[in-house]
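Q: Convert this sequence to structure tokens.
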Amino acid sequence: MLPSSDTLVMRRRIRQLLLACVAVTALGLSGCATLQDEGRRNYTTAISAQGPATPLDGVSRASMTGAEPGASGFRFLLGPSGLDVRLFLLRGTQRSLDLQYYQLRDDATGRLVLRELRNAAQRGVRVRLLLDDLYTDGLEPLLGGLGEYPNVEIRLFNPFPTRGSVSKRFAAALLDFNRINHRMHNKLFIADGVLAVTGGRNLGDEYFMRSTLSNFFDFDMLAAGPVVAQMASLFDEYWNAEQVRTAPSVLRPADPPDVLRRAFDARVDGVGTLDPMPFHGLDRLGLAPVVDELIAGRVSMVYGSAQAFADSPAKAWGELETGRLPSGALLDNSRRLLIAEFESAKREVWLASPYLVPGPEALRGARNSARRGVRIGLITNSLAATDEPVVHTGYRRYRDDLLRAGVEIFELHPNLGQRLLLPGEVANTSLGLHSKAAVIDRERLVIGSVNFDPRSEALNTEFGVFIHSPELAAKALGLLELLKREASYQVRLKQGKQRDLEWVWMDKRNGMEVVDDEPGADLWTRTKLYIQSLLIPESLL
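A:
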């Protein structure tokens, strides 16, 4: 079974909060801690690419040579190359670094990123780091130490009023559950305002094939051109939002700055924070390592028109704000934007989402699209490939209805994912799906942080990019085809049945294999899932 991913752990912590609420209520405690005043906060925005050119300015210009006016450039980052590229950008930037993440882990990858942020700040680079506060427990010493370096500022989205253990923080927020149940799930990385990385990955070992226990199949993209300015303006919307607090006002470190810096240095400069081995060879798209091209000064990119979008930060307070920023970026409900894109399809939609709970509206939309002759395919995790089966119950409620509507469904096999590994990646680990992407009519691509589930729709803020590029869409579809062919079951209705299912996959030795019962679901699992499905609202899945 896979260890928790970002979304699955969040759901577990929300349930911990509910249990803490019950405990606090039983004890007659108030649970009414409130955030302290943060004092004065500076309003800052992205630094434009003016003044002396930086090396990354040159890479961006060279990589956009030949693009049509108004087009942006993109390059897929697969497996470990996503970390290699981030490290190159961290070390090569000379003007600014803006990072926005749902989770930054205290592991080799997370500490490596923090170390390079410090090093960049010492070179005179302005560093802005924006994190959701859900996963900062235990990370406070690192954040406090980094924040004491000149040129670094750290802010926290929708922070908890109390520090300490998970249970303590949740219990203290008993009367503020509606607020803290909303989280910032966005992921964004912008270097010198001219190159950006976006997708669904957090900053941790398992997102870059570095974990010895389990890893995620995921991909993101390096971007250049006008879309980077759109991304930067969305970052600024969050950075300066009312829902954000400066880290010192939340963490309230007790030690003097020099002590915090020394403790930080000891953690990030140790033997446990070594550089990964650079990836060599061709990736799954048959392309050479992106870092080699960055070093050479020009990245081979695919061009297309692009639209960056995000939920408004106000979604964290249950408010809906929509609009278009001067950069052209959209603020709107991410799920609504996705559904509108899917409904515009004329021929075909393929969606990859690790946590897939369609809901009645999406089910109706799938039926209507199928009646119009649109082919719809879904790729998600199987029950056997996730450590949080209760999340699967929301998806299972819709699965047979989707199949009857004509939707094709593929679920990641827990073991066949090994076929997706390349030399140099950690072998003998389980592999789960974490990609969040969609391909429409083989012309348009959506990539970002958005899961197709109730949390993304109503509770989490999300970020993504719509891209119109048949060439890029074909590459993305090739990756999804790889998932289907090499590592997935196809889920089908049994012949002549309306609800009974079967799971089919191709075994390279024995040919087609068919399983009649849901893989990973013994009697105890089925019983537990049935009980949990009655008790846990779909809105929390």
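Confidence is low (pLDDT under 50) at residues 1-10, 19-31.
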